[in-house]
Design a protein that fits this description.
This protein has one helix and five strands. The chain is mainly beta. The protein binds zinc ion (ZN).
Length: about 60
């Protein structure tokens, strides 16, 4: 089973080795809260600074 990690830059959750949105390899297993963004124009997406639909972490901390 692959581990879901969150991007430290944009909070996108991914099972890949790099973020599919910002291509950052700075991913962390140390995240809390799950937000599913369906409408990137919506209020929650705007508050989070999210520009693409998908699953995001509410809080992400570095693993170090
Ligand atoms: Zn990212």
């Amino acid at each position: 089973m692959s581990v879901l990690k969150a991007c430290l830059k944009c909070k996108k959750l991914t099972e890949a080795k790099e973020c599919p949105i910002c291509k950052s390899a700075e991913l962390s297993k140390n995240w809390k809260g799950l937000a599913i963004i369906i409408d990137p124009e919506g209020e929650i997406a705007k508050k989070m600074g999210v520009t693409a639909p998908g699953r995001y972490a509410l809080r992400v901390k570095s693993e170090q």
